Amino acid sequence: MALVGGLLYSWEVPAYFRWLDQRVPSSATASLGAKWMRAALSLAYFNPLWIARHYVFLRFFSGHPEQITWDLVPLATRSFVLNIPVSLLVNYYIQNRVSAEWRFVVSAVFSGVMAVYYALSAAWL
Q1: Which residues cross the membrane (predicted)?
Q2: What is the rounded distance in angstroms from the CA atom of residue 101 to the CA atom of residue 83?
Q3: pLDDT digits over 83-122, tens only?
């Protein structure tokens, strides 16, 4: 999983954040709507399909490839929906209060916390 994070996520997430910076620039003078748009677009990136892909990696690297089924999509959707309030607020903070050079690091820390949540939610949901 660390290899996936180091190779795939470390390229993919900063690329998305750069795209987001081009579409909805971050600034102290940005409107409240623009700030929430940044948070919503960040949340949309980490959508149920992204979570399902994360579940696939978890199943694969934990030695349970037989558990990789389409059932992961509804599980990921439930995890995503239950997490929206927290994730939206944290993404608002990351996208509007954290400087661009630290945004990936802070997002990675939050993603690490969320990875634990996703693993637990797979057992709970």
Answers
A1: 75-94, 101-120
A2: 26
A3: 899 999 999 999 999 988 899 899 888 988 887 887 787 7
Rounded CA separation 60/20 (Å): 31
Tokens for 43, please give them.
Answer: 């949340």
Give yes or no for a contact between 81 and 125, defined as CB atoms under 8 angstroms apart. no
Inter-residue contact 77 to 48 (CB < 8 Å): yes
Whole-model pTM: value is: 0.81
Rounded to 5°, the CA angle 46-50-54 comes to 120
DSSP state of 43: H
Burial class (CB in 10 A: 0-12, 13-18, 19+), 91: buried
In tens, the pLDDT along 4-15 reads 777 787 888 889
Structure tokens at 111: 């993603």
Cβ–Cβ < 8 Å for 94, 107: yes
| CA-closest candidate to residue 104, choices 1, 17, 4 | 17
